[in-house]
């Protein structure tokens, strides 16, 4: 077993959007990181809240990017949602599908009947992300749920990461129906629920998996709920300010700028960093204030500051006493 971070785990469960790729382009270093795990025979899995592709399509997309993947290694919220519906409904039951063709195909393969209108008296509505979801189908969903249909959401991610910045995600579309009905979905299947993580671990017979994600409110919170260690990478949605403000339910075990953090010593990415000085930075705490001085790796500073904010210092109490520290806090909008 290696003495780096990943050497302490028998499975790495990756989120995809914001971790391995952004839309259709791999994130710098991701291909090399997964390749290194493959060379070391470290099992990997991919757990994604994105319901717009089936497992085989996701595996093909990854392979086309230079990240070899098998469909059995991919768990999607679309497939998991179809499984949940099949467990709750009689075979052949009509289900109104809001989302992409992938979700419709998963519902059909689960032995249920996809429909498009509330007039078809669906037993359930399943809602997942799709780039073409519009007012008409959201209206049908609201009518069906109001008439008594079970409402299942594949996930509630408010945004999707992209090279142009965060884009509306399924959570934003769910919010449209939630506003119209003044109620929440009956079931939310994907992260931050633990099911995708626990299923991945079970399929790989893993005893000590590591979850890797870019979102505190889904990836990391889901890992915490599943009882798994987690690594937050700063290549997607959640940034330093979000991490500093995170509550206990969404705090990762480790934080790194990108997937290269998997291959360094665990103690160099563990968060929080309980110290007065590290890596050229100095942290001085006085009651409800914490002063950052010096210069160095921004992630080291972030880990030091988490020790302060996670133990009671408000974000407004963070102060900079060096040019490098001031530039860093300004960049983090603090």
From TrEMBL:
Entry annotated with the keyword Ribonucleoprotein: no
Keyword Chloroplast: no
InterPro entries: GNAT-like, HAD-like_sf, HAD-SF_hydro_IIA, HAD_sf
Leader peptide range in chain numbering: none
GO MF terms held by the record: hydrolase activity
GCN5-related N-acetyltransferase-like domain location: 279-334
PANTHER family tied to this protein: 4-NITROPHENYLPHOSPHATASE-RELATED (PTHR19288), D-GLYCEROL 3-PHOSPHATE PHOSPHATASE (PTHR19288:SF95)
Name of the molecule in the record: HAD-IIA family hydrolase
